[in-house]
Amino acid sequence: MVPTMTAPQGKVTHKILVVDDSPTERFFLADVLARKGYKVITAENGDDLILRIKAEKPTIIIMDVVMPGASGFQLTRNLSRDPDTQKIPVILCSSKSNETDRIWGLRQGAREYLTKPVRPEELLSKIAGLLG
């Protein structure tokens, strides 16, 4: 697991939870986000995701679709139906690039769907849009 990365002291930031079973992908996303001043928390699977949500109360979740155990689609659906987590926006990031995958992800409750490799500027733009 990638250690939690934080912004410089004194700066108010949003917490972003990155969920991906690939250590390389988690590190890449965490690095992009931390450089922009976000506090980044990571999880590598669905079980870890639930623990991190309860402990950290993230502002946004960025999640892979293809993971061992529960998929990002299943986890997003569960989060969107739970009153305690349904207001946390989910951005799905996946190598699944078919339009049907994107539509399915949005139907499960994701607010955005990005395909890998993720372009940092596109990710940051989507986050900014969700934060208003």
Q: Which descriptors would you attach to this protein?
A:
132 residues; alpha/beta; Rossmann fold; 5 helices; 5 strands; 18% strand; globular
C-alpha Rg, in Å? 13 Å
Number of domains: 1
Superfamily at the CATH H level? Answer: Response regulator
Distance between the termini: 30 Å
| Approximate helicity band | 40-55%
Supply the CATH class.
Answer: Alpha Beta
Mean pLDDT rating: 92
The CATH topology assignment is Rossmann fold
Largest sheet data: 5 strands, parallel
Sequence stretches where pLDDT stays below 50 over 5 or more residues: none
Describe this entry's structure for a reader:
It contains five helices and five strands. Helix 1 links the parallel strand 1 and strand 2. The protein has one domain (15-131): Response regulator (Rossmann fold), CATH 3.40.50. It has helices at residues 23-35, 46-56, 72-81, 99-107, 120-131, and strands at residues 15-19, 39-43, 60-64, 90-94, 112-115. With 132 residues, the chain is of the alpha/beta class.
